[in-house]
Amino acid sequence: MKIGLFFGSFNPIHIGHLAIANYMAEYTDLDQIWFVVSPHNPFKNKSSLLTDYHRLELVNRAIERYPNFKASNIEFGMPQPSYTIDTLTYLKEKNPTHQFSLIVGSDNLKNFTKWKNYDLILKNHGLFVYPRPDFESENIELKGNISIVEAPLMEVSSSFIRKAISEQKEIPFFMPESAYNYLKEMHFYEK
Ligand SMILES: Nc1ncnc2c1ncn2[C@@H]1O[C@H](COP(=O)(O)OP(=O)(O)OP(=O)(O)O)[C@@H](O)[C@H]1O
Ligand SMILES: O=C(O)c1ccc[n+]([C@@H]2O[C@H](COP(=O)([O-])O)[C@@H](O)[C@H]2O)c1
């Protein structure tokens, strides 16, 4: 099977993430999309992160109705910060018959050459890139298996959600309903 690995902090998951996965499942040859919840992005400060299990729970609730979407906690038991090449190697060992590609937003292209063994990721797996406002993909010089999809732009981000909640805004339409209800019930991001 062809699997698109959608790595992320998902702090929290939002409708943009779901739309990206939806687009990749419908417009590429990927059979399944796995949302891999990362304990710690090497480029980000961990202090603003909800615990791994709460972020995973939000993802699970958000995708529960979609059989082609799976959530993965594989990085929870691996060394931190979470280097994607190490997770890819481990996943390939565990699932030798699957083919794994990466799904990323175009904001990741700018620093992609700073990722651990980025050349191996490109050579052995390949990237599907979803465009993000203010992050042009055109001028990025990267060689390898990269497919930049042409898809509707979305401005939404997890930072926007965290800020809105901390300002006591009601934003039920920016997250899948079940995940939003859980976030409210648990008083996440209210400070
Ligand atoms: N609106 C968006 N358009 C395109 N890609 C996106 C969008 N939101 C998130 N992504 C991509 O989804 C993946 C996971 O992103 P992440 O969980 O960090 O969300 P985020 O909204 O970027 O979070 P934050 O605002 O906290 O930085 C990354 O590859 C990111 O580029
Ligand atoms: O492997 C690396 O060197 C590397 C560098 C930066 C980011 N990543 C991964 O990219 C994913 C996207 O992170 P984020 O926080 O933007 O959702 C997440 O799984 C990070 O661990 C990985």
Automatic annotation (TrEMBL):
InterPro entries, alphabetized: Cyt_trans-like, NadD/NMNAT, Rossmann-like_a/b/a_fold
Domain Cytidyltransferase-like span(s) in chain numbering: 5-163
Pathway listed: Cofactor biosynthesis; NAD(+) biosynthesis; deamido-NAD(+) from nicotinate D-ribonucleotide: step 1/1
Top EC group: transferase
Superkingdom: Bacteria
This enzyme's EC code(s): 2.7.7.18
Keywords: ATP-binding, NAD, Nucleotide-binding, Nucleotidyltransferase, Pyridine nucleotide biosynthesis, Transferase
GO terms assigned for molecular function: nicotinate-nucleotide adenylyltransferase activity
Reaction catalysis annotation: nicotinate beta-D-ribonucleotide + ATP + H(+) = deamido-NAD(+) + diphosphate
Alphabetized Pfam families for the sequence: CTP_transf_like
Cross-referenced HAMAP family: NaMN_adenylyltr
Function, as annotated: Catalyzes the reversible adenylation of nicotinate mononucleotide (NaMN) to nicotinic acid adenine dinucleotide (NaAD).
Family assignment from sequence similarity: Belongs to the NadD family.
Official protein name in the record: Probable nicotinate-nucleotide adenylyltransferase
